[in-house]
Design a protein that fits this description.
alpha/beta; Rossmann fold; Helicase, Ruva Protein, domain 3; 2 domains; two-stranded antiparallel sheet; 18% strand; elongated
C-alpha cells in the first residue's frame, strides 16, 4: 500500500493512533442518521471509524495524492469524495438539509474552518474534531478567561461548546510542535440574536481588537449616541462579557 507523504504546505499531520481516531469518531455517536462531512481525511484513519459506525459520509480533500489513496482504499466512498478546498466549497450544494462536520483539521486554517461552519449555522447541527490545543481552548473558553475572545463569542452565540480531551504530539506523522485538543460544537436553540447580527460581529471584533482597554475606550467610535457610554457596562473589558451581554452592548451602541 503506497502511503501519502505529509505535505507541510497543507499543514498535514497524519494521526497514527487508532484509539484516538476512534474516540474522535465517537463524538458524533448521538448524530447517527444525520449526514456527515469529513474535512481533510488524508489517509482515512478517522474515515474508517465513521464508515464502520454507519454514518452517511462524504469527505472533502484538497490533496490529490490523498484523493487517490482514498479512491484506492475506500470503495465505500466512490462518488462521495470532493476533491476541492473546504474553504471554497459551497456547502449548501452538498447537503440540502442538516449535517455534521468532523475532521482532524489542518492547524494553519482551523480558525477559518470554524468561521466557515458559522456561515452555515442553519445547516450544521454539530461540528467536532481535532485542532491545535490553543485554538480549541479559545473556542470553548468562558467569560473571564484569558483565552476568551472573538472565536469564543461568535461561535458560542450559536453553539454549545465542549473541550473533550487533549492529544499529545507523538501520535502524529510528522509530530506537530504543539499539543492538540478535541472539541465538539452542538447547535443551540437560538434562532436569532436580539440585535443587529452584523453590528454584533463588528462590536465583538472591535472590542477584542483592543482587549486591554475598557469598552468605553475601545468601541467609542461605534457609539451612535455618546451618552450611551455612561452605562456601567462600558467600564468592563471585553473578556468579562457573556454573549448575552454583548447583545445588550450592541443595542446600547445603537
Amino acid at each position: 500500500m503506497q502511503l501519502v507523504k505529509p505535505k507541510k504546505s497543507l499543514g498535514q499531520h497524519f494521526l497514527t493512533d487508532l484509539s484516538v481516531a476512534e474516540r474522535i469518531a465517537g463524538t458524533l455517536d448521538s448524530h447517527i442518521g444525520t449526514p456527515v462531512l469529513e474535512v481533510g481525511p488524508g489517509m482515512g484513519v478517522l474515515t474508517r471509524y465513521l464508515i464502520d459506525k454507519g454514518h452517511d459520509l462524504k469527505v472533502v480533500e484538497l490533496d490529490n495524492e490523498s484523493v487517490g489513496f482514498l479512491n484506492d482504499n475506500f470503495p465505500e466512498l466512490r462518488g462521495r469524495i470532493l476533491a476541492e478546498d473546504f474553504l471554497k466549497t459551497d456547502l449548501s450544494l452538498i447537503f440540502s438539509d442538516k449535517f455534521c462536520v468532523i475532521g482532524n483539521y489542518p492547524y494553519n486554517i482551523s480558525s477559518q474552518i470554524f468561521f466557515k461552519v458559522l456561515e452555515h449555522k442553519e445547516q450544521v447541527t454539530c461540528c467536532s474534531g481535532m485542532l491545535q490545543k490553543e485554538v480549541a481552548e479559545r473556542i470553548t473558553a468562558k467569560p473571564g478567561s484569558k483565552t476568551y475572545g472573538i472565536l469564543s463569542v461568535l461561535l458560542q452565540a450559536w453553539y454549545d461548546t465542549e473541550y473533550l480531551f487533549t492529544v499529545d504530539e507523538n501520535v502524529f506523522n510528522p509530530p506537530p510542535k504543539v499539543k492538540s485538543g478535541v472539541i465538539r460544537l452542538t447547535r443551540n436553540s437560538r434562532s436569532r440574536l436580539d440585535c443587529d447580527e452584523s453590528r454584533f460581529k463588528t462590536v465583538v471584533k472591535t472590542a477584542f481588537g483592543q482587549r486591554r482597554k475598557t469598552l468605553r475606550n475601545s468601541i467609542r467610535p461605534l457609539a451612535k449616541d455618546p451618552a450611551a457610554l455612561a452605562d456601567p457596562m462600558f467600564s468592563k473589558r471585553p473578556e468579562q462579557l457573556s454573549v448575552e451581554e454583548f447583545v445588550i452592548l450592541t443595542n446600547l451602541l445603537n
